[in-house]
Amino acid sequence: MPKVFISYRRADGQAAADRLYTALAAAVGKDNVFKDVDSIRLSQDFRAAIEKAIILSDVLLVVIGPHWLTVTDDSGQRRLDNSADYVRLEVEIGMRHVRAVIPVLVDGAQMPAGDQLPPSLYQLSYLNGAVLRGEPNTTSDISRLVDQIRGLFDSPAADADAPQPTGATTDATLAISTVEPPASGVGVSHLSVGGHEITIDLAGVSLTKPQRVWFDGALVSERYTVFGVRHAFAVSEKDVQVSYEVQTGSRWHGASYWIVVRRDGVVVYSNK
């Protein structure tokens, strides 16, 4: 069953989000649908819970009401222009990790134009979405959307459309060897991925402490997340430019760590 994350603003699209949650919970199971406070335990860090839920989701539904684009905070600043705005963060994380990001237009809202969005959300304006009309059509529109979501993962052709590595998956150069990360954060993990050596100092996993990662390629970007650090590298394989991404993070406040390596967007190693 697909896991679905519902992103929305309480002041804009709350009723539609509630109805979507009810319908999806009945279709794919309550445990497979995430909707803010309904899915976060008391005392749990909501930032970490939301980021983890999105990363583990297959579908992100972005509920867009008539004020989604223009709603402001107490100082009069548009919320989407704030890099810490939770809806903006949800969509940004989803567009990096989730297989299907689906805008859902409700209450007569129109799809925002690219130049109306922050640069990090620009691509959202080009995604084909769903429209939930008012009654008496709302129920049938939601039912159709739920069926389409299930169809994305029930169809045998779904996997064929997924990104594939630039080399054959059976190629011996994609073999993975690893020294399993230690139970505590003190230690170094060594990976060999596609003939590339990756060394990760797990002791540095933190939102505030630098983490050392060695890779035989050019560092493209480094970004700290709630769970750890994400490094992107560019390398040349047989004269073809290939991108690698090394993501690390902690479980249970540093009690243990996970590592995920992606090659051209496809996971080639994970101990999550």
What's the helix and strand layout?
Blueprint: E1 4-7, H1 14-28, E2 33-34, H2 46-55, E3 59-64, H3 86-97, E4 100-106, E5 130-132, H4 138-154, E6 176-178, E7 188-193, E8 196-201, E9 213-215, E10 218-224, E11 228-237, E12 240-251, E13 256-263, E14 266-270
Parallel strand pairs: 1-2, 1-3, 3-4, 4-5
Antiparallel strand pairs: 6-7, 7-8, 8-9, 10-11, 11-12, 12-13, 13-14
Helix pairs in contact: 1-4, 2-3
Short description:
By secondary structure, the chain is of the alpha/beta class. 20% of the residues lie in helices and 30% in strands.
What do these coordinates show?
The chain is of the alpha/beta class and about 270 residues long. It is about 20% helix and about 30% strand. The protein is built from four helices and 14 strands. The strands form three sheets. The chain has a five-stranded parallel β-sheet with strand order 2-1-3-4-5, with helices on both faces. Strands 10-11-12-13-14 form a five-stranded antiparallel β-sheet, with no helix packed on it. A four-stranded antiparallel β-sheet has the order 6-7-8-9, with no helix packed on it. Helix 3 links the parallel strand 3 and strand 4. Helix 2 packs parallel to helix 3. The two termini are about 20 Å apart.
